[in-house]
Design goal:
This protein is 32% helix and 16% strand. It is an alpha/beta fold. The chain has a 7-stranded mixed β-sheet, with helices on both faces. Helix 3 links the parallel strand 2 and strand 3. The longest helix is centred in the last third of the chain and has 14 residues. The radius of gyration is 20 Å and the shape is globular.
Length: 200
Amino acid sequence: MEKFSVFKGVAAPMPMVNIDTDMMMPKQFLKTIKRTGLGISVFYDMRYDENEAERPEFILNKTEFRHSKILLAGKNFGCGSSREHAPWGLLDFGFRCVIAPSFADIFYSNCFKNGILCITLPEAQVEALTTQADGSDFSIDLENMKITAPDGTVTQFELDETRRHNLLNGLDDIALTLEHIDKIKAFESKQQTGQPWLYT
């Protein structure tokens, strides 16, 4: 998983409440088990019309937001089913951070496991950031837990230290397991000696 420290990127405002995982990644795109190639389908029904032509009014189809890395969303972002394809699609599009007043629990967890930083802020602060989302760069500093808006305004945020540590070091569940590889190998060796029938 790619490490997350400090980065700059355009923030796309999408202040709708209750954006669910089906809106992010409709069911017809859940057949793949690959994490790549889903970015083109993220927010599919909002991005494209019935002829698969882009809807020019949708935020991510506007020139200044086509390469956004930050999403400014409304309350209860990521509700609905627990499909992991939703954060896969966001990440493949280029999003590394979502800022919202609240998140659905499973979606929130899935984002961190895939390298997406979710920042929870009071609604008024999210709205204040959204007023500056005009295609200019925001800066996200995970080390110091602060957001710098285009006008230089700094907003502090809080985050569970374990999630922060894992993102800063690029550690997903597999990498965390491999940190204990010596203990795993020692256990397997002991088990193989004491219970060899398990390995035949």
